[in-house]
Amino acid sequence: MRQRVLSGMRPSGKLHLGHYLGVLVNWKKLQEDNDCFFFVADWHALTTEYERTGIIRESIDDMVIDWLAAGIDPKKATLFIQSRVPQHAELHLLLSMITPLPWLERNPTYKEQLREQTTRDLHTYGFLGYPVLQAADILMYDAALVPVGIDQVPHLELAREIARRFDFLYKEVFTIPQAYLTETPKIMGTDNRKMSKTYGNAILLSDTAEEVWAKVKPMVTDPARVRRSDPGNPEICNVFAYHRIFSDRETIEKVNVGCRTAGIGCIECKKWMYEHMEKVLAPVRERRNQILESRVSVRDILEEGTERARAIAEKKMKEVRDAVRI
Ligand code: SF4
After folding, report:
1. Count of domains forming the chain
2. In whole angstroms, what is the distance from residue 134 CA to residue 132 CA?
3. Among 266, 272, 274, which residue has the most ligand 1 atoms within 8 Å of its CB, making it the best to mutate?
């Protein structure tokens, strides 16, 4: 049965392998049999980037080109920009009136981010309330399924609680969304830290084959394997973790044995991994180049999707205003 699916991504410019494996592969599958709405979460970006807003708008085109290159198809899914559908802000406001503060304050991500983000001041009303904005995004489209990783389940639970509270206080208006739990391979950056453009350890979907190899070649391996003749431990090697994601079983076994017995060298091992990874990256790169050459207008695609989203959002807001009697 086709279901309405909603998912968003903050505009962060060019995307890397982590985004591809963690989100886009899943979106691509979902768009085949569902009514998918994928949006550019630019207002969400504001909750943390309010002092550097310039990068938000600039990042949208690069990000959406990568969506298309990864196989997200605007004929199958509706792609839109959150801030171009102002109904999201209106619903956010109405939901914020009925959301008890402790629901937001106990949010584990909120507490964690306040602790971790030491370079930004996140003691703002907007940052505390962003799960309410998220609830508005989801409930607006009667999304039945929301793809989330296990760490985002508390946010979705909050959206469900807010929807139930609204329905209880006024009138049953919202579909209660379900989490669509996605298990995605966890990929680290080339230096074994979290993959991030700011750390300079990310493999970008827009990298050329040569750029990818230049990043793979110096990848951190088992530090105890200093010489070619030293046996290694693949379990603690990031290159082996990549093999597990990209290579076939035969190659993985060959590496497992060859590494432990010093039968293979690290460069050889990296080359095999790179060749398997290229089977994933090359088609994405090729589509990306085709998109750029064909001058497909990302703005037109987003404009069309935004209009479709806006019409649905306005219809829902009429029900909401009616229920609140405002
Ligand atoms: S042979 Fe491969 S798995 Fe073993 S340490 Fe070198 S890169 Fe890592």
Report:
1. 2
2. 5
3. 266
